Amino acid sequence: MMTAMTTDPDCVFCSIVAGEVPAEVVHSSDHSLAFRDLDPQAPTHVLVIPRRHVADIGALTAAAPDEAVALLAAVQVVAELDGMGNAYRLVFNTGAAAGQSVPHAHAHVLAGRDLGWPPG
Ligand code: DGP
Fold it and tell me: What is the residue range of 37's domain?
């Protein structure tokens, strides 16, 4: 399903997509952008986001399932580019109670240190 691309002028990740806020971009595709997290929690910490403004991964999957798949494909490209191989953690904080602070869907890709389980 395809719907019109949406953006939110008050969203910091939309501003990064628009090039209005600087970020260290590591990968870009038609539907996604990957850049290093401002507050890294591991030696490698990349955020992979849809260009479309949607609140979370569930909303992306509902609005444009093809773009959710494209996001996961971008995660794998980022992992390979950054030398993570097959050892990384993928996190979608979804909802404030789960630690989501930016209401624009994003995948955290973390690697480069031992990652404990269960997560905090
Ligand atoms: P979360 O708490 O799951 O919503 O993660 C949001 C992440 O976004 C958090 O790890 C910090 C990061 N972040 C917030 N603002 C910026 C920004 O302006 N630039 C970059 N590169 N990262 C940001």
Answer: 12-111
Pocket test for ligand 1, best of 94, 101, 104, 110 (most atoms within 8 A of CB): 101
Q: What is the pLDDT of residues 31-60, one digit of tens each?
A: 999 999 999 999 999 999 999 999 999 999
Count of structural domains, the chain: 1
Tens-digit pLDDT profile for residues 102-114: 999 999 999 999 9
Could you identify the atom of ligand 1 that is nearest to the CA of residue 36?
A: 21
Residues in the chain: 120
Atom of ligand 1 nearest to the CA of 102: 4
Instruction: Tell me the pTM.
Output: 0.95
Tell me whether residue 5 is in a domain: no
C-alpha 12 to ligand 1 mean position (Å): 9
- Calculate how far, in angstroms, residue 117's C-alpha sits from the geometric centre of ligand 1: 22
- 106 tagged catalytic: yes
Place of tokens 């909303």: 59
Taking a C-beta distance cutoff of 8 angstroms, is the pair 1, 20 a contact? no
DSSP sequence for 13-37: HHHHHTTSS---EEEE-SSEEEEE-
Residue 1 has pLDDT above 70, yes or no: no
